[in-house]
Amino acid sequence: MFMKNRGFRAGKLLVLIFLCFSVLLPLFTLFFHIDGEDISKVIHSPQFAPMLINSLITTTLATIFSVSLAFALAWFMNRTNLRYRSIFTVLFTLPMLIPSISHGMGLVLLFGDNGLISNLLHMKFYLYGYNGIILGSILYSFPVAFLMLCDTFQYEDYTTYEAATVLGLSKKQQFLTITLPNVKGPLISVIFSVFTMIFTDYGVPLVVGGKSMTLPVYMYREVIGLLDFSKGAIIGILLLIPAFIAFIIDFKNDNKGNSSTVTRNYVITPNRKRDRIAYIICIATVVFISLPIITFAILSFVKQYPTDMSFSLDNVVQAFDLGVRMYLKNALAIALLTSILGVCLTYFTAFITARSHHSFSNMALHLISMISLAIPGVVLGLSYVLFYKGSLLYGGLSILVLVNITHFFANPYLLAYNSLQQFHSNLEDISATMGISKLRMLKDVYIPCTQATIIEMFSYIFVNCMVTISAVSFLANFRNMPLSLLIPQFDSQSLIEATAFISIVILSVNLVMKLIIYLLKRSLQKEK
Amino acid sequence: MEVLKDAKLIVKDLYKNFDGKDILKHISFAVKEGEFLSVLGPSGCGKTTLLRILIGLEKQDDGEILLDAQDISHLKPSERGMGIIFQNYALFPNMSVLENVEYALKLRADLKQNSRKIALSTLEAIGMLDQIDKRPSQLSGGQQQRVAIARTLALNPKIILLDEPISALDVSMREVMKKELKDIQKKFNSTMIFITHEQEEAFYLSDRIMVMSEGNIEQIDTPRNIYEHPANDYIKDFVIAHLDSKLASLCVCTGKNVYEK
Questions:
Q1: Which of A33, B29, B184, B240 is the most exposed place for a label (fewest CB within 10 A)?
Q2: B-chain residues near A3 (CB < 8 A)
Q3: Are B172 and B179 in contact (CB under 8 A)?
Q4: What is the CATH code of the structural domain delimited by B1-81+158-261?
């Protein structure tokens, strides 16, 4: 095809340049920054082996529990006659709306030495160490696994189950021979994503790890505390390994093209016993999730925990005195800018790769766009420090926006890519023969047709920007810091009530955003 | 090549290779003004590639395409003065029937001012005037196809290419659309090149049929001549035998001799 689409080509070039500067060059810098001597120093240091073991054990156990819980909940939401399923689904995803470190804080407030439940029951829980890390990591990661698995269950074809019933297969046999093979691919993806999430998170173990140091906490302390970038980079590369394996497995899975079509939606048979068990587990999970959040709310509005539990706005006033207003403004500015620019960039990139002919440059673009899935936030943050230090961008809001766009690039990109691929390729042929340019098609056809996806992309980036403490942590300073990073800072100063209040503020902002998105989507649906 | 005096389109020695495989093997033919030419062949014979090359969506490796005696090989698809209609209609899903037809008109400097008038009159001619506010998703397959035809006709192309446009419809609708297509062609006196793998469609609609197999033209002639004087065994097997067996089964099940009637 030899159409002239200058604007489109210029856009494509700009995206390629952007991805070079936002992904490839910083990553190369990270690799080149490693000092050979430091590798052996880090590996042979006495803390290294225990650190690695701590990370591996806690991550493995937390992944098993988290994915199992998510699997059960996703199954309950799609295969039982539970009432209020949509409310349950919303509640299960609440933990995604607060930073990982807040989950650690929540556990401390509940089960710590002076925790609400510890005091209430006069019991001592052994929270600090493996218990705390595992519990916090489950809270932090299961909503992601839950959403991914819900998606899988939704797209199961019922006709296979009908055929199995006709052949006389029991429910148990059907589960083993139909359901499990159907979800195997997605389940492997989920396991790896959850493993990576937990393995690279420093928020939870920083607060509840106690003496059990993990790799990301070590990296955080080396970089933030000691400014030792080389050692940080070595750990960063270690953290890249599982993420990279996950990425490759996912990519292979995708290429297999598991595109079963749903000819008939699943029909749920009545079964009271099954539904009762589902109710018990779902309600227990809701309690487990909401306890920390309720605690944050209580702590934010009492005089002095645990001695004086009377209502007071002292903590709120104190938090504002310590700069919450300014950091909230920063957070909102970063989240809004990242969402707007991120949506534009990811959508346009997806438009290029999904709506034009397969070419080497398009495949490269697709791969680079997805690669951010394989770069843990802390590693990306560190590579930005190394690459951008001394540049004009460094130290301002723009570097935080840039790093967040890159960090959260892959998911909205894939959302847009999948949406845009659903249009038949003949639309391009028709527009070419009628003299309609690609950019015009984008503006007049594709964007109006995919508004719901665009809103979803915006919401994903916004919420993640509000809760992230990873990529931004090494790049932020007292001026440009977003609100979420105030939590580790206040935690180190033992300002417990203030951290609780910040978690509540972040949760509220995200809830408001989610509500707006919900209303927007509903009005779109009504229009249709 | 038989050179037609009043040829609208002349294709000379067209050659195309994909991944080492010859898709079109130096084929030549011509189409007259106002003619309905069917390109008939099984899947993989190169007919769709031919269509895409004619309109400029693919580039030939060799050969010439002359429209009104002008070489159009180097022109962009939108500059060739041709329109195309696909099996899946390819309507713009977010636009109403009227907007679908009017959209491309509005982007053309020469048609912009009268775009609404042209769109409405084309839709009227095609019998879709009462549906202009509906979205494509609210229309039946046949109605969507009519809108796709109107959208192409409105731009007043010199030649309309149709890529199996009625194969996606259900059987009863196909019969209706076949008749309508013929009526539209007469009404607008359009030159049409119609791609199909269905022998009956080609025989019903065409002034002439071009039978293709494996990148070659096996025969190009009127339906009657092809039926009465098949050029080779391929035509006998693929075209004549197929039509005869259909006819024979019709005779058996109705008990009538259709030939006599």
A1: B240
A2: 76-77
A3: no
A4: 3.40.50.300
| pLDDT at residue A479 tops 90 | no
At A410, which CATH number? 1.10.3720.10
The pLDDT assigned to A265 comes to 73
Question: Mapped to the 3 state alphabet, what secondary structure does A308-356 carry?
Answer: EEEECCHHHHHHHHCCHHHHHHHHHHHHHHHHHHHHHHHHHHHHHHHHC
B107–A435 CB contact, under 8 Å: yes
In a domain, A183, yes or no: yes
Q: Are residues A21 and A66 in the same domain?
A: no
- In a shared domain, residues A278 and A382: no
Residue A267 pLDDT greater than 80, yes or no = no
Q: Measured between alpha carbons, how far is A40 from A521 in angstroms, rounded to an integer?
A: 54
What total of structural domains would you count in chain A? 2
pLDDT at A257: 43
pLDDT-based confidence at B261, cuts 50/70/90?
Answer: very low
For chain A, give the percent of residues with pLDDT over 90: 40
Q: CB-CB: which of A4, A426, A435 is closest to B90?
A: A426
A158 vs A87, higher pLDDT: A87
Would you say residue A27 lies in a domain?
Answer: yes
Looking at chain B, which residues constitute the CATH 3.40.50.300 domain(s)? 1-81+158-261
Q: Which domain holds residue A490?
A: 1-32+314-528
CB contact under 8 A, A430 and B108: no
Residues A181 and A149 grouped into a single domain: yes
Cβ-nearest to A3 among B76, B80, B84: B76
Three-state DSSP class for residue B162: strand
Residue B106 confidence (pLDDT) above 70: yes
Amino acid found at B158: K
- The answer to whether residues A131 and A273 belong to one domain is yes
> Across the interface, which of A4, A444, A448 has its CB nearest the CB of B76?
A4
For A308-355, how does the pLDDT look when each residue is reduced to its tens digit (9 = 90+)? 878 888 888 888 888 889 999 999 999 999 999 999 999 999 999 998
pLDDT at residue B260 is higher than 60: no
Chain A positions touching B59 (Cβ under 8 A) are: 1-2
User: Pairing relation of β-strands B216-221 and B36-40?
Assistant: unpaired
Domain shared by A401 and A445, yes or no: yes
Q: Is A37 inside any structural domain?
A: no
Q: Residue A473 domain-assigned?
A: yes
Task: Please list the residues that pair with B188 across neighbouring strands.
Answer: none
Q: For A5, name the nearest residue in chain B, comparing CA atoms only.
A: B76
Residues 3-62 of A with CB under 8 A from B: 3-4
Same domain, A188 and A327: no
| Averaged pLDDT, A5-29 | 89
Res. A435: pLDDT tops 70: yes
Residues A28 and A70 in one domain: no
pTM of the model: 0.88
Q: How far is CA A126 from CA A115, A131, A373, B3, B16, in A?
A: 12, 7, 34, 95, 75
